[in-house]
Design goal:
Layout lengths: L2 H17 L5 E10 L6 E8 L3 E7 L2 E7 L7 H21 L16 H13 L6 H25 L1 H7 L6 H12 L6 H23 L5 H26 L15 E5 L5 E5 L5 E3 L6
Antiparallel strand pairs: 1-2, 2-3, 3-4, 5-6, 6-7
Length: about 280
């Protein structure tokens, strides 16, 4: 333990005790240091006006407070109890781990290979990674976007063929499908925003791949950009399929519509909310 670490830790211990309304400290000393579990953990003996406490901490271990009563008679017992709790919490965290892809809704179950890549990147992401590993995650994100472009091309290969777009040119492919999925003046703002997201996600991932100085938050943001863009295209596709043209009751605005057959084979839209009925006209009529 360096003198600097000792001074800084004593300061943190005083602040920590104060948060539990433990004040008037008489003496603080490091009673023992343990490293048998692969990480250095210190047990501090703290005497106050009203009692005595064990404070257990380490550079890679959380700080916690234990009273020196019948339950924790020695520094060794306080250390053993503390590490037992820490390991149980660590296991619980791993069992209930929720990686960052769960932070946003993704409708990409049908895109299994892209989903697998992004989940793999999310599971690899950790604050302990080296810069080369951060760059590798950026590369996975960029490859996922290229694969998304290929998936879009499969849905409508004529567009790519007619425009002479290369299979690896994700930005060009993405922008063509934005035009396809959300045409007309009413979607002009959404087209503009969607193109910006395409440019942001692709450019930022390229920055991660080529920079050795990016950190954990940088790469997490890149992964979020990528996941959000994949989700965006799936939802643009839903609009393209006709979600914008859902039947709406002209009386109450409800979308709870049932189609029933009327006279002369005409379709009637019957609202389940207000019971309003409206005859649907065809293009011939």
């Amino acid at each position: 333990m360096t003198p600097e670490y000792r001074i800084e830790t004593e300061k943190h211990i005083k602040e920590y005790l104060a948060s539990y309304d433990v004040n008037e400290i008489i003496n603080i000393k490091c009673e023992n240091t343990f490293n048998d579990l692969g990480t250095e953990v210190n047990v501090w003996n703290v005497k106050t006006k009203d009692g005595a406490y064990w404070v257990v901490e380490g550079e890679e271990a959380p700080m916690n407070l234990y009273t020196q009563n019948a339950n924790y008679l020695s520094a060794d017992e306080a250390y053993s109890y503390h590490m037992g709790i820490t390991q149980r919490l660590s296991v619980d965290y791993k069992n209930n781990f929720k990686h960052i892809i769960d932070e946003i809704p993704l409708d990409i179950k049908q895109l299994k290979s892209i989903n697998r890549k992004l989940n793999m990147a999310a599971e690899k992401l950790s604050v302990d990674l080296e810069s080369e590993e951060f760059q590798a995650i950026g590369l996975i994100c960029r490859e996922s976007l290229i694969e998304l472009g290929k998936e879009l091309s499969k849905r409508n290969p004529e567009i790519i063929k007619d425009k002479g777009i290369k299979a690896s040119d994700f930005k060009a492919i993405a922008n063509e499908f934005i035009n396809l999925y959300i045409p007309e003046e009413s979607n002009s703002e959404l087209r503009n925003y969607s193109r910006k997201i395409v440019d942001i996600a692709w450019s930022y991932n390229s920055t991660i791949v080529h920079s050795p100085n990016k950190t954990y938050p940088d790469v997490k943001i890149a992964l979020l950009f990528t996941s959000a863009l994949v989700s965006l295209f799936e939802n643009l596709f839903l609009k393209y399929l006709g979600f914008d043209n859902e039947l709406v009751c002209s009386e109450c605005g409800s979308k709870s519509i049932e189609l029933i057959e009327g006279e002369n084979e005409r379709l009637i839209a019957a609202c389940k909310s207000c019971n309003h009925e409206e005859v649907l006209t065809t293009e011939k009529e």
